[in-house]
Amino acid sequence: MRFFGIGFLVLLFLEIMSIVWVADWLGGGATLALMVLSFIAGVMMLRHTGLSGVLLAGAAMKNGGEISLYQMLWPIRYAVAALLLMSPGFVSLVIALVLLLPIKGKPIAQMNTMGGTFGNADNPFRRAPGGSGDIIEGEYTVTTPSEKQKQDYIEHKPD
């Protein structure tokens, strides 16, 4: 925990220095405009992901096949990048852009707490192998009321 505090202070110092360097290089107005645009982009990203990021991670865990670590961590990386874009400074902007890079990994097998893989018999919503996914099996019967039942309903209709 001691290193976390030191790292935070170093990051804070680098953020201030990056603002000063960019303001010296581009000018104060352009630096302020870049910081406001970065903040707006971060807010829009957080509004976009919201609860859907959590649901996306849950869906990726339950899809029954193999999943890459990238797919599991993408919603978290996206939210952290949005928060970093909202912070003033250009070091956090660079870190946010690195987090948004499409770095993919090899698929890993999913393991649940019981030691089995997700998507086997313990998941009732898994698609059957080889199925198209568009067919819902079931039986139904169409019943039409007889004329006498219709007449009785009309005569004894509750008010």
TrEMBL record:
Keywords: Membrane, Transmembrane, Transmembrane helix
PANTHER family documented for this protein: UPF0716 PROTEIN FXSA
Entry GO CC: membrane
TM annotation in the entry: 32-57, 78-103
Disordered as annotated region, ranges: 133-159
Taxonomic lineage from the root: Bacteria, Pseudomonadati, Pseudomonadota, Betaproteobacteria, Neisseriales
Protein's UniProt name: Membrane protein FxsA
InterPro entries named among the record's database cross-references: FxsA
Start-end of Basic and acidic residues biased regions: 147-159
